[in-house]
Amino acid sequence: MDNMLTLACAAPCSDSPRVSLQVAVAGLRPEFPAHVPRRLAAMAEACWAADPLARPTFNQVRNRYNEKASDQQLIHRLAGIPVRLS
Predict the structure, then answer these.
(1) How many Cα neighbours within 13 Å face the side chain of 66?
(2) For residues 60 and 27, what is the distance between their CA atoms, to the nearest angstrom?
(3) pTM for the complete prediction?
(4) How far is CA 81 from CA 22, 23, 25, 31, 61, in A?
(5) Residue 33: which pLDDT band, with cuts at 50, 70 and 90?
(6) Which of 1, 8, 14, 63 shows the greatest Cβ crowding within 10 Å of its Cβ?
(7) Helix (H, G, I), strand (E, B) or coil at 40
């Protein structure tokens, strides 16, 4: 999710085994740039909770994602997904 929001890798992409170890052992997490809406960054951060039971369910993530159309459109633009006008 962070790659989609920031349009960048959390750490050097070529060193993913080292990054995976740092995530698992040291809790390494990316910082979100200022253009990422705080509510979306908070949602990603909630998904990283050390306790799996503290992480949001898929339905909670979906509901947060759908709360505001502008955030949804932003995610689509960042991911290169065409925005549908309904």
Answers:
(1) 6
(2) 23
(3) 0.55
(4) 31, 28, 34, 23, 19
(5) confident
(6) 1
(7) helix
